């Protein structure tokens, strides 16, 4: 399949089939290898599907089986995946077939052998993984989909002391978004905005939670601006009534009831780039507590967004919010938000910047953050969020909708 | 929230809010502890969200953060999760608050400390995890969402040699479905059947892939028989045209084209129980190759289902299929199917029985299998599947639809 935008003979333009031009991937690889050099890593084992997509474009629902990308200190990365997935990996990944290795089907889900043993052997054989007394191989040892058995199989080939933690090296390279990535996020923002409008409209007394979700999922796939929607890393969440006091409940087929509030958390997604968004809807006049909390949080959000400028440490954004809600007598124990961009199930957070008191990372233009203000109380809750792209002059709201509690009477 | 069906004073009937009565969970725990005793495990660390749900009913999108259930050799299990999720865990889990432990928010995504260190310390403190020279703790070391860093944190508290692999102990307890579980699967089957009908209807020349997915996802959430649909562990997959030769592509916003075939793989889901289903649709007269392959696979499927009886080793089902397609000159390298039941992203397979030559497990009544016949060729592909419940007299098709290639002209 052809590549867009490079203008080189092997890269004719076909914008529809490939989300990014080759040059973008070359730049990403270079920045990862520069970071590897700073840590003297001889190779990097990348397992997080979001990092595989970032570095190669590889995009398939194959991450439920062991797979990885191995990035050498110099030269091109190689993809290792199940044989049936290796065969079609070139439909999405820019890699030539010589850099794609499929492990045999009979290694799948066996108690005695593990695909990561095969992967390590092959990678050593083709010279990708250094071995010996000085070898320093880093791996994503806290990534989803890298199991202890996979790790132990890799370790058995490399030897104790030669397998290090990458400390989310690729994730940190991803924090500043390129202009092309920012465009993807703006499309995702429109999908999020449109879908939240539909979700809020469909919240009605007597309607079942699953009916609301049906509307949300329809809109998420449809997309916006004639550009399709992609699947979200997290399904729509609808904590309702009493259960709104707990953040990660999904949905049931119970009907929505009068005098209850529902929090909606969803994302618009385009080419794996996520824009999450949360709002709260009250069916009937809200309680005094809910109304007061909503007011404080909206004011706190304003303060947080005003504080968000390039050059400011991320923890200052947290401080601006807590200062405001503190005046109303509220506290919030959990972080206020996190860096966003590419996402795969089960998480759309980037696992880098968190808006919390310990976060000393200094904000830069091109960063993208989900400021999610969840107040989970005893038997009720309130959520409000904004996803923003940080520009030189401050945050650009990616899904600008009213920030008040929605009251439907 | 009340419990259905037990008839005891603390468990009044409320069928809507809890999928299973307490007695069902007591039985499941007992069978797991019996299996633990056979291996002399002093404790079992359960990480797979499907196993958490099976043993306690706990159901929330919190598995992107470290969490586990620790089952002692005797007595009640305890749940360990992030503080914000621990607070509302009782909405779905049957456990009293004294058996739910929330780790502090400041342990989230830190490079220096890991929640599994806190979990291990607390579990040792409350006497759940045995320590000492004879301690034998088993953990799900190939489960999704158990990272190497989590494993190493746990190992550091228990000591080398005391942390063993559970070899999917809980998954194997799950293979025979209770009558109540079978009822959930029948509802899921109706959702799958209805959704596949809608998917096939919506496949049309010029319609975008994402528009078809919008219809599928709408129907998946709506459910059937007035019972709601739950989220699938895998999003709808639509490998189309040339890319139908690769199994795990998701969708794009490209329009469907005449003279191309699309394979559809989706699931109906109810209370986390999955019934997956695959069909192939040809827009226009199929190629000779596709038509011939479809005929051979349908005949092979009949042979496989006829061979599927209690008392038969699972590998015989594989042999029956390969014998038929071999007569047509086809082979299939990958397994022919797998055990199904509860599923969480990223996989609806149970990680137990595989229909392949090495599988000696003897089939029993109450097992549920997805027989998925994917033929991934060079530049084209064909898929057909059936999800079945095995009864004394043979397989019950959970989503009975015609088994032929669908041709739309």
From TrEMBL, chains A, B:
Top-rank taxon, per record: Bacteria
Annotated signal sequence is: none
Query: What ranges does the record give for the region Disordered, renumbered to this chain?
Result: 1-21
Q: Which residues form the Creatinase N-terminal domain?
A: 28-176
Supply the name of the protein.
M24 family metallopeptidase
Q: Which InterPro entries match?
A: Creatin/AminoP/Spt16_N, Creatinase/aminopeptidase-like, Creatinase_N, Pept_M24, Peptidase_M24B
Q: Which CDD domains match?
A: APP_MetAP
Residue ranges annotated for the Peptidase M24 domain, each copy included: 183-390
Pfam families reported in the protein's UniProt record: Creatinase_N, Peptidase_M24
